[in-house]
């Protein structure tokens, strides 16, 4: 197996040592964009672990941006590079102030959009949909506060978010539990209650394939189903 094949197999196998995956890729070529985005993915995975100290998560988050920035220079039109550059920048928001977060969201949205435009996978569309949903869901008070920090507050609509969630479904139908969840959330915002109910039921019936992440999502879905 090649380095890339080993890295991909390790990522999708939830039983592998996440730190070992990072070490393996760190020993590979650092000027290869295919290695760099996979290294960013591996460090992101490591950062999700509850056992990873907060300061380590912080350093990994900003190192990840450096990796993906270099990858973008080498392969500016690669959908996976664009996707992971957006994910990397998004992950730094946990450690940034409100103004920087607002500035970042414009860049994050642009990167996800470019990834979709050059043939990005279902996840690209899902994450762009999430970005649009979060912007559409900002309250009047949040927007007012944001205007005090930046000259132009980014906007979106639930309709735009839904288009991207639907694009995710068209690429990989009823495959992603989190996409089914956000389909339901968005349809509910658009007052399409019957469809929202259908999609939350789809979400609930889908298996938990991402460990604790899906278990938490499943609990949220059950709670949301009771509200509909």
What secondary-structure arrangement, pairings included, does this model have?
Elements: H1 3-12, H2 18-26, H3 33-48, H4 54-74, H5 79-91, H6 98-117, H7 122-136, H8 140-147, H9 158-171, H10 177-189, H11 193-205, H12 212-227
Helix pairs in contact: 1-2, 1-3, 2-3, 3-4, 3-5, 4-5, 5-6, 6-7, 7-9, 9-10, 10-11, 11-12
Organism: Aphanomyces euteiches
Subcellular location: Cytoplasm, Cytoskeleton
GO molecular function: microtubule binding
Features of this protein?
single chain; 228 residues; mainly alpha; Serine Threonine Protein Phosphatase 5, Tetratricopeptide repeat; 3 domains; 74% helix; globular
Describe the structure.
- The protein is 74% helix and 0% strand.
- It is mostly helical and 228 residues long.
- The radius of gyration is 18 Å and the shape is globular.
- The model has no long low-confidence stretch (mean pLDDT 94).
What's the overall average pLDDT, rounded? 94
What is the structural class?
mainly alpha
Helicity, as a percent range: over 70%
Rg (CA only) = 18 Å
N-to-C order of helices and strands: HHHHHHHHHHHH
Distance between the termini: 48 Å
Q: For this structure, what is the CATH class of the largest domain? A: Mainly Alpha
β-strand amount:
under 5%
Count of DSSP E strands? 0
């Amino acid at each position: 197996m090649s380095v890339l094949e080993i890295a991909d197999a390790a990522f999708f196998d939830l039983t592998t040592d996440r730190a070992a995956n990072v070490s393996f890729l760190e020993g590979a070529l650092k000027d290869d964009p295919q290695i760099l985005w996979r290294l960013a993915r591996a460090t992101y995975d490591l950062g999700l672990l509850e056992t990873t100290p907060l300061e380590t998560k912080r350093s990994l988050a900003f190192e990840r941006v450096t990796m993906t920035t270099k990858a973008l220079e080498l392969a500016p039109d690669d959908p996976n590079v664009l996707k992971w550059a957006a994910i990397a920048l998004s992950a730094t928001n946990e450690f940034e102030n409100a103004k920087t977060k607002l500035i970042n969201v414009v860049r994050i949205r642009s990167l996800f959009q470019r990834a979709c435009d050059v043939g990005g996978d279902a996840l690209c569309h899902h994450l762009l949909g999430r970005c649009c949903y979060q912007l559409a869901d900002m309250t009047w008070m949040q927007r007012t506060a944001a205007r005090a920090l930046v000259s132009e507050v980014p906007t979106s609509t639930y309709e735009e978010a839904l288009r991207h969630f639907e694009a995710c479904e068209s690429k990989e139908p009823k495959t992603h539990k989190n996409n089914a969840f956000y389909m339901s959330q968005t349809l509910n915002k658009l007052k399409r209650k019957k469809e929202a109910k259908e999609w939350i039921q789809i979400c609930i019936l889908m298996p938990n394939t991402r460990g604790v992440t899906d278990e938490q999502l499943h609990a949220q879905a059950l709670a949301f189903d009771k509200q509909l």
